[in-house]
């Protein structure tokens, strides 16, 4: 079963803002959350779920679906509230959205460009993605 599709960072924010049952799941690593920053969904009064898709070494988080179920445990039974997945550049979050859909969390969306976007011609990130679109974020 395929995930619901790809949306831009701005579309993701609008979906989260306009649907109080929608949830954002950041699937980057703990190091990325701590040192790069995380989306700030406090302005729309809801938390962002932080669940690693892979660890810093690149090993898949075998407990991902169980951790997702725990994070989304408060959803109403039979909920069709959107789940929006975000990673650094929009690649890892495809796998997370696919796994979530297979586990019954639908619709699940992937955020194109992710939090920082792909590498640019100078091998730098940050010219695209959640932060580059001026969406709320915070850093610890």
From TrEMBL:
Stretches assigned to the Rhodanese domain: 18-127
Domain of life of the native organism: Bacteria
Gene3D superfamilies attached to this UniProt entry: Rhodanese-like domain
Pfam family for this entry, one: Rhodanese
UniProt-listed InterPro entries: Rhodanese-like_dom (IPR001763), Rhodanese-like_dom_sf (IPR036873), STR4-like (IPR044240)
Entries under PANTHER family matching the protein: RHODANESE-LIKE DOMAIN-CONTAINING PROTEIN 4, CHLOROPLASTIC
The protein, known as: Rhodanese domain-containing protein
Organism annotation: Nocardia aurantia
Lineage: Bacteria, Bacillati, Actinomycetota, Actinomycetes, Mycobacteriales
